Amino acid sequence: MRTLLFLLVAALAGAATLFAFAPYRLFWLMPLALAALAELAQRQPQRAFWLGYSWGVAAYTANFHWIYYSLHDIAGMPFWLAAPMTALLPAYLALYPGLALWLACRIDRRPAMRWLVLFPALWTLAEWQRGWMLTGFPWGTAGYSQITESPLAGYAAVSGVYGVTLLVAFSAGTLIVLPRLANRWRLALLLTVAAFWAGGQQLKAIEWTRPVGKPLRVALAQGNIPQSLKWDPAIYEYTLTSYYRQVANTRADLMILPETALPVFLDELPPGFLGLLAATAERNQMALAFGVPRRTDDGRGYLNAVIAPTTPGLPYYAKNHLVPFGEFIPLPGITSWIYRFMNMPLSGFSRGGADQPPIAMASQQVAFNVCYEDSFGEELIGPAAKATLLANVSNLAWFGQSDAASQHLQLSQTRALETGRPMLRATNTGMTAIIHADGEIGAIAAPFTRQVLSGMVQGRTGLTPYMQYGNRPVLLLAALLLTLAILIGRRQRRQQA
């Protein structure tokens, strides 16, 4: 009975993390939720894996429940298949906190070593690993909960989101260790944690990059085309006309339309439409980019692309980090049968290639990324280093009026902080936004409205510490802490033997 109660409390603590992320942004909840998990594991270390697993299942189900909406309501998958498919991702992701907690309890029994050294190191390594394993899914990483309200957000430009995660886990471990420390050590630990949090607040005030060029007016289109109608031939003409009118009625230096704004292959657009769109933008003295599917140069595949029709040579960016099951079929011999139950157009995209160059637009260098590509901070470092602006085009109509769009916005804010560059977000239904280099939102469009968001933005150049070194320093630190804990534990056991 006690074990069941502990598992239930762990699940409740995990579910509470929903409110630590956007749109709720109660950043202080994350260290408390992790501390609750750690306290349970300290009392029942023999159940550490299952406590961590219960925490993870509840946390990831609460945060990613919107997957069911996309599978069932939009893609048309029947309930009996959509429900277990939705549960599959949290069931897999929960393995990482389960293993991290199990190892922390297995390696060392001493509370200080377990929760101040092992737990932060293992939790950070586990979060990083799930961010790349099987193409990766880093949403829900603890560090994201601190962007941008928490003082710890200041570390994003220095160590990236995983450095923030390490400090969140260390703060949680402090809450567990403090009551168990002798009085002479409590003040030292409190001062250490306070120094980390105060230091983060000071780091937030540093400008790691410098302005380049003149400020420019940008315009971000939000078409608000329902996903259920987006690929319907009956409204194809309406979609093209709607976006054309938005371009024709906009005055800006740079205008960006969302992911697959034009729901047809580039070479299948009505004759003359691409030229008309470009000429209209040029008449308004405006650089233009929009999302559209594009065939590969050899004609054997197709790309989720962003085209710049007002730039000579018709340059484009093509999405490289594709969504499993959404944009490509993993292990088609095993999983292709699932698509018989789904209305999933264009589910076989090709990769665009890593480290694509930015596109010169409006006297700036714009590095594009598509949809959830801005979830992967280290992958954006190369393009961002050559760019002065970042731009994300997305279509989150797949997830309805859920928290998915707000969570995605928080990821974009993190990338702006890490790179010291503004992030422009043009989305179909929300959250269309202008994010400044400090991660703060300069302007945002009301979700589920058809409008063009306008505002001023300043391009920036230079490298943040994170851009220079990536995740390596944090991963090395975590690995070093883990190694030291193992070596010290072995030495102590030999002395006691």
Automatic annotation (TrEMBL):
EC top class, as a word: transferase
Transmembrane segments: 48-68, 80-103, 152-178, 473-489
Membrane topology: Multi-pass membrane protein
PROSITE patterns in the cross-refs: CN_HYDROLASE (PS50263)
Keywords: Acyltransferase, Cell membrane, Lipoprotein, Membrane, Transferase, Transmembrane, Transmembrane helix
GO cellular component: plasma membrane
Pfam families referenced in this protein's UniProt entry, alphabetically: CN_hydrolase, LNT_N
Subcellular location: Cell membrane
Keyword Lipoprotein recorded: yes
Alphabetized HAMAP family for the sequence: Lnt
Protein role: Catalyzes the phospholipid dependent N-acylation of the N-terminal cysteine of apolipoprotein, the last step in lipoprotein maturation.
Protein name: Apolipoprotein N-acyltransferase
Gene name of the record: lnt
